[in-house]
Amino acid sequence: MTINWYPLVFKPILKDRIWGGAKLSSLLHKDIISETTGESWEISTVPGDVSVVKNGALAGKSLNELLELAPEALLGEKVYSKFGKTFPLLFKFLDAKEDLSIQLHPNDELARKRHNSFGKTEMWYVMQADPDSRIIVGFEETSSPDEYLYHLEHKTLTKILKEIKVAPGDVFFLETGTIHAIGAGIVIAEIQQTSDITYRVYDWDRVDAQGKSRELHIELALDAIDYSVSDAKCKYAQTVNVSNPVIDCPYFTTNFIPLNGQQTFYKNGDSFTVLVCTKGTFSIMVNDVATAFREGDTILIPAVITDFQLSGEASLLEIFIS
Predict the structure, then answer these.
(1) CATH T-level topology, domain 13-234
(2) For residues 93 and 189, is the Cβ–Cβ distance under 8 A?
(3) What region holds the Phosphomannose isomerase type I catalytic domain (predicted)?
(4) Options 200, 206, 214, 294, the catalytic residue
């Protein structure tokens, strides 16, 4: 089958969460499923939550189907040689109307051994933040399993964790093992390894409508936690119409593009590119065909498309695998 590739957008996979709200609709134009919609999975191959193309001639095909048909054209030569027919990243938007649980994610080794999964290295880009909203990232000072368990038992865990106030445009890089929580009043774009493995250690003693508390993973988390101090906040330049480096890790590279006008970008075919529009409107031109996008869109540009033109006024995250 010959595929005429173009920038792909997928149907959002929406998740109701006890901590969710309605901002995914009001800010990011998602057709939310409830007033407690916490997540929109934009590009996913997590089993049971596989993305389906929303636009163009390939509409209705799943990402896994495309990976079977033409994996190298979609993923890129380098990514295909490393991951085969597996899409290695997961893209989400999250709306935290209330605090998320205090949690962490295992590394590749633990996740493979326990869950036959990738680990979950991730980054957050803050899109919107209410006044005085904050996140929790890591420990205030180097801790230990004994100190951590003592505070967990006495419900004083937050006393030894680092709270950071946030503002739109802030970026945080969370390595596996980093204990963390997104605070109330924040909308973020999240980029992570393809994994849905989370160890929840404290959930603010809340219960759902049936009076049930959510499952905790105290034992699993104990040897997965990094007890050192995390320096998670990332500084980055914001030069207009260029790819400003933000994060470069073994799992993904993220750049920030403040687009104002028109710029052509050239790729080498090694990796797909994903563009996440965090603000504004813009268009992508490929082979003289322009497609318009807006805030809240996540676009997968197949690796076989090695040059494209962006035009408009927008803030974009550019993600690929180096």
Answers:
(1) Jelly Rolls (2.60.120)
(2) yes
(3) 11-116
(4) 200
